Amino acid sequence: MSNDRSADRFAVQDVMSSYACGVDERDMTMYANCFADDVEVVGFGAETVNGKKAWVEYVTGALERFGPTQHMLGPQLVTFDGNDRARCRTDVQALHYLKEPAGQILTLWATYTSDMVRTPGGWKIKRHQLTSRGTRVW
Amino acid sequence: MSNDRSADRFAVQDVMSSYACGVDERDMTMYANCFADDVEVVGFGAETVNGKKAWVEYVTGALERFGPTQHMLGPQLVTFDGNDRARCRTDVQALHYLKEPAGQILTLWATYTSDMVRTPGGWKIKRHQLTSRGTRVW
Amino acid sequence: MSNDRSADRFAVQDVMSSYACGVDERDMTMYANCFADDVEVVGFGAETVNGKKAWVEYVTGALERFGPTQHMLGPQLVTFDGNDRARCRTDVQALHYLKEPAGQILTLWATYTSDMVRTPGGWKIKRHQLTSRGTRVW
After folding, report:
1. Phi, psi of C49, rounded to the nearest 5 degrees
2. What is the ipTM of this complex?
3. What is the pLDDT of residues C66-100, one digit of tens each?
4. In chain A, what residues touch B4 (CB-CB under 8 Å)?
5. DSSP class of residue A38?
6. Which of A56, A118, B71, B92 has its CA 20 to 30 A from that of B135?
7. Helix (H) and strand (E) counts for chain C?
8. Touching A: which chains, 3+ CB pairs < 8 A?
């Protein structure tokens, strides 16, 4: 095995980019495909969400409040643990146009900590944690 | 040919980064160099703009309204079609300081869909489409 | 030597991502590790700051005014000069929650020009320049 993890770096980056694209384009099949079936999701509410199915339902419901959204991502810091595990730190600035009151924006500045595993279907998020820096409705 | 498209991924990324750098530094030679001669540009106004020359003139004119600008880009989702074609999805948050009224900011949140082709002079944008999520003057 | 600089591109990107992570997580060891001992820092104030020690002290002091921060980075334009030198252009949108008045945000839109050198300890920033596009307290 080469020490060059560039192909894995892009694969891991693409999972996060698909996460953003999936949610912003309301392509929930693309979005769901980012996660392992037994993903654990922490920090989006008081309760941990367990499992891809429950998480995608949660997000689908949350999106009903919003018009257009944009999840602007930064580059990732990635730490590999062996060949098949990676921890990814990604800054996000999430724009959400509110339906009520119309035209108002909810901006969330946050950091994702996403633990990924390599599977036969590609890298998948096994644990996903949101750390909020702050929010503003404006 | 290796399956590792990392070098192409960076080359494609650099086209988008040069697009942002070119416009923000008002280096219209760098900016023009991102495009194929016969580029088609869609979504920046009611009309499609055809050709690099017409597009660079359009942008040069549009910039006259603005002081400093910043085109903050996200990472790209890239789909290659064979060896020499790529479709790139890039989120952008475009900051424009207005000259009038001075100090006011026009922010555009949008997504670029950029179809690129490999040429003897490197990857070039052959079709460039803007999908706006929203704008705010503030 | 291969022409594929992908591994170096990711290494250079990781320096900038560590810069952002270090300052935002207040991990000043990670932050300091991004710089050469004799780094020259330009554009953050009227005076050039010379040396890693002085610079990290400056930043540590400046952070006392702020609650949470986020340094959202764009992708980098990188120009290599031989094997061991690189000039990196990185857009940044820096969010700073002010302690006084509480809840107010200072946003800085800027570009980093970071000259790096390869050392036995990895790529390090040898000269770091900030070019501001503008700031807003809101």
Report:
1. -105, 130
2. 0.94
3. 999 999 999 999 999 999 999 999 999 999 999 99
4. 6-7
5. E
6. A56
7. 3, 6
8. B, C
